[in-house]
UniProtKB/TrEMBL annotation:
EAL domain sequence ranges: 1-254
Portion of the full-length sequence here: 530 to 783 of 783
Organism: Paenibacillus mucilaginosus 3016
Protein name: PAS/PAC and GAF sensor-containing diguanylate cyclase/phosphodiesterase
Domain of life assignment: Bacteria
Amino acid sequence: FSLEQRLRLALDRGELVLHYQPQAELSSGRIIGMEALIRWNAPGASGLVPPVEFIPVAEECGLIVPIGQWVLGEACRQNKAWYDLGQRWTVSVNVSAAQLMRSGFPEEVRAVLEQTGLPPELLILEITETAAVRDLEHTRRMLLDLAQLGVSISLDDFGTGYSSLGLIRQLPVKTIKIDRSFVQEMTDEGGNGAIAEALITLALSFGMGTVAEGVETEEQRERLARSRCAAIQGYLLSRPVPAQTITKKFAGGE
Ligand code: G
Ligand code: G
Ligand code: MN
Ligand code: NA
């Protein structure tokens, strides 16, 4: 079987799973949200297959569309369960360019929110800067439709592409995610963190929020706090873990 065939079966057989990685507000340390990250519990594989090994294939063959629909539904269902436990976390879902290009996407999102009962303001869609600028006018209309639903948009891997800031400013983007390469530079020998600091300042001047990714050390956390970054995500708080682990560690439940 090809990887594509095995992936198609994986979706049907329920072998795909979501792990969640918490995000905390820097000023208070409070947990404010979770990013949903896909893994594949493939039969015969040792451990879970990471997304880098199958998402690019899924994007190439179009399977990313049904996979993305599953991810969206599952992440919203899980976040509604945490909501029912009293949490008011956002859930961030990664959206591929191929999903964003489909004109029916906002309607799919609306239907999932209705079916799961998750308040729209607790859903964040993460799109990459590269996907956003592929067809800017289409993206802009799409994001405006999604914003109308009350869902917010986050720009992932920000600063790693080549898009112009003038373009980004035309999009209804609420937060940018500072890529972990820039965070790690803050404490690398020879690195100075100037890019991370510049991106945070830029986001502030655009009225956008910031989430720093890949925060691994206390020193990085302190540097980010001094740079007025709003929130952090990374191994310092937790690795991506199964929903059950999040429930036990952060939601005070079973
Ligand atoms: O989970 P990991 O830490 O290995 O994530 C690696 C990459 O896979 C990230 O760039 C992330 O954006 C992407 N990814 C993880 N989950 C999903 C998903 O559900 N959909 C899409 N399109 N990409 C995902
Ligand atoms: O969607 P995105 O490309 O941002 O996916 C986040 C990726 O970064 C995932 O592969 C996740 O497992 C990984 N990651 C999350 N936190 C850390 C961290 O603190 N350090 C490193 N090196 N990777 C991280
Ligand atoms: Mn992401
Ligand atoms: Na990222």
